[in-house]
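quick one: pyridoxal-5'-phosphate bound model?
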Amino acid sequence: MINVTKPYLPPKEEYLQYVDEIWNRCWLTNNGPIVNELELRLKDYLGLEHLLFLGNGTIAIQIAIKTLELEGEIITTPFSYVATTSSIVWENCKPVFVDIDERSLNIKPELIEAAITDKTSAILATHVFGIPCEVEKIEAIAKKHQLKVIYDAAHCFGTKYKGKSILGWGDISTCSFHATKLFHTIEGGAVCSNSPDLIFKMAKMRNFGHDGPFKFLGVGVNGKNSEFHAAMGVVNLKHIADILEARKRQHFQYQKWLKNLKVRMPKPTMEQVEWNYAYFPVIFETEEALLKAEKALQDHYIYPRRYFYPSLNKLEYVEGKPCPVSESVSSRVLCLPVFHDMTESTVDLISRVLLRAQNYG
Ligand SMILES: *Cc1c(COP(=O)(O)O)cnc(C)c1O
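yep, here:
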């Protein structure tokens, strides 16, 4: 059986060394030494000023919204994982959907201004599949209308724009280190910001608001993560160059095999992007073609995923205006399997099944 992804697991001995350390110290969670080590190593690797390691990528978005004290309406993308929208609703704000660019599948900056009202407090955009949003255009709009910007950068580990990690953009960028992501800590996430004040506030907020044992700086939540999760991150980070390299190799293998498949792939709309190849999304001409391809793969015990379906403006708990591009793409996009040790013959098999389904199915 081949799934859309498979978590990376490092050599077990490397992880067990950290487990021994944890046993000796008996310090399991609450901002322990391995959590600190991971934060330092991630900042160094990503070239960021500040980063806080959190329980997951969803609490990261929620903490970002709370920290920026957002209220009213938040302009957001309909093409993302459900956590982007549900976090807005969870924080008692209203998501206002702006349709996507059909090349990159990211929010289309040219459509944002028409959606701004006197209740708009922020823009929350996702760099879908690790392809960066048009961050400069979004920043200009935000500045003009005095809006905050949050990026859901859950897919962006390793993606660079103009030579620097895309996680440095926005008032706050959030990341997910869930087991299905390119870099993972089993469960985990992060917030990044260039503002020391925001980082200070978020550091308190992730730990119940504690400022010492008996004093509290505002309302907090439990957004912490453990030494065991941090250890997985520290060990996986040592292998990140291999993980990224394998993704890139598989990407070009797929491209070679799938030249004659009637699909298109999303692409960055900007120059100077170094993509992490985190996913391999293909957009079919029709939903019917997608369903046929999916069925053919399933018959071979290959399970791609329909990331992202449905378009989030169709969720029953939101008031979604139509977003024709997102709705159309959502019904036609399929993510093919990619994971670090997927072999060339698996890429070959998947490609042949897809071509056969198209040409003879
Ligand atoms: C995975 C993901 C999240 C949620 O992250 P978790 O760590 O699973 O909470 C949020 N947004 C996007 C775009 C994601 O892909």
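The pocket of pyridoxal-5'-phosphate is lined by residues 56-58, 80-81, 83-84, 126, 152, 154-155, 176, 178, 189 (CB under 6 Å).
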